[in-house]
What we know:
Oligomer: single chain
Order of helices and strands: HHHHHEEEEEEEE
Low-confidence stretches: 97-105
Radius of gyration: 23 Å
Strand order of the largest sheet: 1-2-3-6
Amino acid sequence: xNDSEKRDDMLAAEYALGSLRGGARLQFQKRLADDPELxxxxxxxxKMFSTxxxxxxxxxxxxxxxxxxxLDLPAQKRLRKSRPYVGWMAAAGLAAVTxxxxxxxxxxxxxxxxxxxDAQQHGQxxxxxxxxxEHLSIIPLRPNAVAAQHSLQLWLIPDGxxxxxxxxxxxxxxxxxxxxxxxxxxxxxxxxxxxxxGGSPTGLPTGPVLYSGKI
Length: 215
């Protein structure tokens, strides 16, 4: 591993740990969108750090802490009577429309969630998700050759349940998936199978599972 790779590995660890902040974090996130190998390093460190606090029991702060916080908060100022009520309502309505539009148009921020491996346990795909785990991005680490008569199909397999199709995948570029009536539950598996062109005719995997990983 050369110096550049070591630095990227350190940045990936800091990003996964949450200690990379400010402009450095924003710049790193931009690189993640176009660098699958860097995303793989983040996924590796997230998996490594995920067990650090597994032995810790949650501690609830005593009531006096909340009271102290309330006392330290600045006093709320009363609205000036001279300001027209209608003006406030119009401003509030405009702000609500602006915020709603911003949330509707913005692209969810995605972070690496897991790696899908092949039969030799080599990482082949990076699965990223937003904070609510409603939006996914599946990125191939390298182009996957697929014959014209076949398609790659993505599946979510909840523990002990039947596979649920998440749609077809592009074999050389990232594929975005929005989960509608399906949740990413703990211990679920994400898999990619080789299916006839256009996808499985039965609604369940019919071809071999080429890549898989457990959440």
